Amino acid sequence: MKGPLFYAKILLFGEYGIIKDSKGLAIPFNSYKGALKSAKNISGEAKKSNESLARFYKYLAKLKTDLVTFNLEELKKDIDEGMYFDSSIPQGYGVGSSGALVASIYDKYATDKITVLENLTRDKLLNLKTIFSLMESFFHGKSSGLDPLNSYLSLPLLINSKENIEPAGIPSQKEGKGAVFLLDSEQIGETEPMVNIFMNKMKNEGFRKMISEEFSLYTDACIEDFLRGNIKSLFGNVKSLSKIVLTNFKPMIPVAFHKVWEHGIQTNDYYLKLCGSGGGGYILGFTKDYDKAQKSLKDYKLELVYRF
């Protein structure tokens, strides 16, 4: 048995903001992917994955919702026969490893699934997002459902608000100097503790004001610029966003990268922002000149995501 491939995702803009209903833009990232596989004698990572699927099965069996039903007998039988999720998506890196797994389980075992080939109305997209949120909560404690949605549809998604999501057309890549890239922190980040820090900060009136008046404002402007191809304006807004994140989201940035972050803002060689919830994993970078950014960050592992 070998299931279809599901890809990683990158939330270009909107981390934390989407929890509080500001905009977000997520794109599939095809460098990393995963698929359900089966083997008689499994060991190592495959065995760990199989055991995790067994726990996930128990969670799904108890899930109370009218939105989705699963062929639980078939799922249990496949797990007992050595099914696992074979994935190159790094875990705890903010690129949707659990999202791809959730998408693959829904695709194979949901009995009345909404398919990618249907006319995806707003209602269908919201239903899918809600289903995926319920499913992925097993892994994170609380999930927006966006990672699995992105992985399942394999389309760029524009999140206007919690109740308004639509497929987005992003400008095709050019062979220019500019780029979006991933910077590997070589540390694993956990979503739940980071979200808890954010929720505690939201109890502070000054922090809430900063989120609505600065963070959300620049996030929305970045999304608008990116979708319209306004590159000059985009970099101005990304720089402002990078500064805001450095000032207000320090606990989400690994300590070793505070100076690296600051250096990018001061030199304009690159601008960094969180990729997902932070705390480790990947950091997202934007640069007008990828060669210059590579030289400036020569001690770190970079991965290209998108060219301007």
TrEMBL record:
One of its GO terms (molecular function) is kinase activity. Keywords: Kinase, Transferase. InterPro entries: GHMP_kinase_C_sf, Ribosomal_Su5_D2-typ_SF, Ribsml_uS5_D2-typ_fold_subgr. This is Mevalonate kinase. It comes from Tenacibaculum adriaticum.
